[in-house]
Amino acid sequence: MTKPGQRIGLLGGSFNPAHGAHRRISLFAMASLGLDETWWLVSPGNPLKPEAGMAPLARRFASAQAQARRAPIRVTAIEREFGTRFTVDTLKRIVRRWPKRRFIWLMGSDNLAQFHRWKDWRGIARLIPIAVIARPGYDSAAFASPAMAWLRRYRTSAASIRTRAGWSAPALVILRFDPDRRSATAIRQADPHWTSRLSAKALRDGVTRRPIPVNAE
Q1: SS3 state of residue 38
Q2: Who's near 65: CB < 8 A, 6+ residues apart?
Q3: Which of the four pLDDT bands, split at 50, 70 and 90, describes residue 165?
Q4: Which residues of 68-84 are buried (b: 16+ CB within 10 A; e: fewer)?
Q5: Which of 6, 99, 115, 193 could form a disulfide with 36 if both were Cys (CB 3.0 to 4.6 A apart)?
Q6: Contact between 107 and 130 (Cβ < 8 Å)
Q7: From the CA atom positions of the chain, what is the Rg in Å?
Q8: Per-residue pLDDT tens digits for 69-126
């Protein structure tokens, strides 16, 4: 159960499938920012990604649970419960539902490079702080992006997030660590049948504790 005052990182994505790099960057971000836990928001569908090749939600959720095992990471399909498709709408609901928690949005530099294409991205930045984790091959595009041009004035350090009595937004933290080149695309190419090795039975949302239907899309 989450407790008032907890600091929670939010990492959204398709998790198609989840893999070790997701876990590694989450643990790194938690240590760097002094977070209590991270929630992995397994998206029912990413508006910026094609549907072709996207595994059913239940299988992607199962892969995320397997990667999050024995770590302070909660896997949730809360967007399915909310009926939201865009990050800004999901975050508004989360902040309203848990007003005494402190949330920070975690994303890779590949997402920062296209952040200006997200619905109401400035609204996201004004809602909660953002931490960007460097990702190989994307830093140049990320730092030259329209979103970075706007966010640059709000850049702060990880230390300020760790010690600040109350978080404010907009705030942007850039986190750097040794690159992890694992990717879901490479995993799918190497193992096209990865979903067949995951059971989608008896899945339960790590945040709401509601069951995830086996046939959840």
Answers
A1: strand
A2: 75, 203, 206
A3: low
A4: beeeebbbbbbbbebeb
A5: 6
A6: yes
A7: 16
A8: 999 999 999 999 999 999 999 999 999 999 999 999 999 998 999 999 999 999 999 9
